[in-house]
């Protein structure tokens, strides 16, 4: 079982997303409806502090775009600091100005702590900064309706979290 992007949004500090593409890699997250994001919680992974992302850029869109599509709007357009601790499993919240609701978000990791070509993060939570209904991925409320296992699943690159987990386990 790999350490895929699905682990970055599972709400668990004990799992992680590991990407050997390193700097410039990241996540694409589709929400069931447009939401204003004003903060992100980052949780450090279990090992190798040199893989911690130290800088990030956040983009938004209201349609399903490819990673390299020019239609992404910069929300945090300069490589902002993640402010991650060197303590494993610790969570740091970063805040930023944003008043535009988007249904799709692209998070790019622009730098890592050490001299490596690998990036890792245990958890990324956009839910802490949602305006209106909060989406708590860790409790299974994936559509913000306050009910665990909501009817509109969170997707990463067109695959639901369940589909990604099933693929990892060979289901």
Name the descriptors.
1 helix, globular, 11 strands, four-stranded antiparallel sheet, 37% strand
Q: In summary, what is this structure?
A:
The protein has 171 residues and is mainly beta.
Structure characterization notes:
With 171 residues, this protein is mostly beta strands. It contains 1 helix and 11 strands; from the N terminus they run E-E-E-E-E-E-E-E-E-E-E-H. The strands form 4 sheets. It has a 4-stranded antiparallel beta sheet with strand order 2-7-4-5, with no helix packed on it. Strands 6-3-9 form a 3-stranded antiparallel beta sheet, with no helix packed on it. A two-stranded antiparallel sheet has the order 1-8. Strand 10 (155-156) and strand 11 form a beta hairpin. The chain starts with 16 loop residues before the first strand and ends with a helix. The model is unreliable at 129-171 (pLDDT under 50).
Describe how the helices and strands are arranged.
Elements: E1 17-19, E2 26-36, E3 39-43, E4 53-61, E5 73-81, E6 91-95, E7 101-112, E8 119-121, E9 123-125, E10 155-156, E11 159-160, H1 161-168
Antiparallel strand pairs: 1-8, 2-7, 3-6, 3-9, 4-5, 4-7, 10-11
**How is the main sheet built?**
4 strands, antiparallel
Low-confidence stretches: 129-171
Topology order in helix (H) and strand (E) letters: EEEEEEEEEEEH
**Shape by Cα distribution:** globular
Structural class label = mainly beta
Mean pLDDT: 79
- What's the helix count? 1
Termini Cα gap:
12 Å
Return Rg in Å: 15 Å
The percent of residues in helical segments reads under 10%
Beta-strand percentage?
35-45%
Q: Spatial order of the strands in the main sheet?
A: 2-7-4-5
């Amino acid at each position: 079982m790999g350490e895929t992007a699905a682990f970055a949004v599972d709400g668990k500090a004990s799992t992680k997303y590991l990407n050997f593409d390193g700097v410039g890699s990241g996540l694409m997250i589709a929400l069931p409806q447009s939401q204003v994001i004003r903060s992100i919680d980052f949780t450090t992974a279990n090992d190798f502090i040199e893989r911690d992302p130290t800088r990030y850029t956040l983009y938004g869109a209201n349609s399903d775009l490819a990673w390299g599509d020019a239609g992404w709007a910069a929300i945090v357009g300069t490589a902002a600091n993640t402010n991650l601790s060197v303590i494993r499993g610790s969570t740091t919240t970063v805040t930023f100005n944003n008043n535009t609701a988007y249904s799709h978000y692209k998070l790019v990791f622009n730098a890592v702590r050490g001299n490596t070509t690998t990036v890792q993060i245990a958890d990324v939570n956009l839910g802490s900064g949602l305006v209106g209904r909060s989406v708590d991925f860790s409790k299974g409320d994936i559509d913000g309706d306050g009910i665990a296992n909501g009817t509109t699943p969170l997707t990463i690159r067109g695959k639901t979290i369940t589909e990604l987990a099933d693929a990892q386990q060979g289901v």
